[in-house]
Amino acid sequence: MNLSQKLSRYADRLTYELLPSETVHAVKRHFIDTLGCALGAYDSEPASIARSVAGTVSSALPATVIGAGLSSSPEMAAFANGVAFRYLDYNDTYLSKEPAHPSDNFAAVLAIAEPMGRTGKELIVAAVLAYEIQCRLCDAASIRARGWDHVTYGSFSTSLAAGKLLHLNEEQLTHAQAIAAVSHNALRQTRVGTLSHWKGCAFANVSRNGVFAAMLARHGMTGPSDIFEGEMGFWRQISGPFNLSLPDPPAPPFKIQDVCIKFYPAEYHSQSAIDAALLLRPQIGSIEAIEKITISTFRAAAEIIGSEPAKWHPTTRETADHSLPYCVAVALKEGRVTLDSFDAAHLNDPVLRELTQKIAVEVDSALDARYPEGIPNRLRIRLRNGQVLEKEVTFPKGHARNPLTDEEIEEKFRRLAAPVLSEERIAMVLKRCWNLENETDLSGLLALLTVENV
């Protein structure tokens, strides 16, 4: 068997009965968190654009566009919902050779589960599958250094999850993977320099393509053979060869339980640096007392959010929430990092700009050796009076080793949903999500997310 066939066999054999209760509960936590991120992003420009385009499409298999009170085709609903899930940079993160945001996969899962009339249990299985495939691929090889965006791995996870919900057999699942993967490899330019709207749309596009590939395979479309191993396949062109093992039959532990949920709306590698800044802030007094700040970090953080000139001069929200120096500067200046921390007023704040210029980022080999088990960031702040303050954080709030409580996840959801849903509606959504395994009407659940005048 080649690798795509092994992935297909794993997908085919994964059942709800194989999932421990803690895995089922983890899906509910990440599902609630992801829906909250979508509601928080409802008024954003990219989400509005995606909804507008999705609204031009009708389908014999209507799928809900979250918040909008409208339906579209499954693939366009996957795109619109995926943009909303990702835009705020507040959804979950997996740390490995290639970091990723596995909750992006919920866009493809919902786009098929709802119109096909699948149950909450089937949604849970598909979500576990998508997380498992994407995370194991991220464990196998990094692709960003070769010029490819991390969302490229989503071609496999989304096509398999959608195919699982379409009840494809192993052969059809293999074709779905091949169709998605041969056609939709994303350039890393998405996350280089000044970042655009597309930063939050890249995986949404992968979800759209994964759903489309699975639907084609369902109707008999075949895809290229040996998508990983072939002469012009994934290993030769994208990732390089790697080993990936899967338990056969599927067995715990499942990767979703290793995925982190964000406490701050910023790129995940900055989370521990933000924590360190907030812990040091009471000792500083006025930020005018700061002479210099040095952030010692691991290589992945430096490469992704601390190495380009644009990170010190962000002009877009997308660049700012992917800027290690900016995130630390705003935490020190305001004592918090919230959704408002990346608005135009903050980006144009001369005091914040000046503070950002005082920050240097360096790679520390000792810290690098501790990644990805943790995300160690150390701040060293030299004050004008000669005093030096230092703080290191490895497992920030929300990390798998320092997880948010269920209550904290609910609070995050309520905070994000409050501008667009009533308290009564929020309570109804949470109740149904915490009982997701008993859900038989996903359309009804998603209808509760329609934005109200509150």
UniProtKB/TrEMBL annotation:
| First-tier enzyme category under EC | lyase
Q: Which residues form the MmgE/PrpD C-terminal domain?
A: 264-436
What EC number(s) does this enzyme carry? Answer: 4.2.1.79
Q: Which Pfam families match?
A: MmgE_PrpD_C, MmgE_PrpD_N
Q: Which InterPro entries match?
A: MmgE/PrpD_sf, MmgE/PrpD_sf_1, MmgE/PrpD_sf_2, MmgE_PrpD, MmgE_PrpD_C, MmgE_PrpD_N
Nuclease keyword on record: no
Give one GO molecular function term: 2-methylcitrate dehydratase activity
* UniProt keyword Lyase, yes or no: yes
Q: Which residue range or ranges hold the MmgE/PrpD N-terminal domain?
A: 5-245
Q: Where are the transmembrane segments?
A: none
Keywords, comma-separated and alphabetical: Lyase
Which family does the UniProt entry place this protein in? Belongs to the PrpD family.
| Protein name according to UniProt | Uncharacterized protein involved in propionate catabolism
- The species is Chthonomonas calidirosea (strain DSM 23976 / ICMP 18418 / T49)
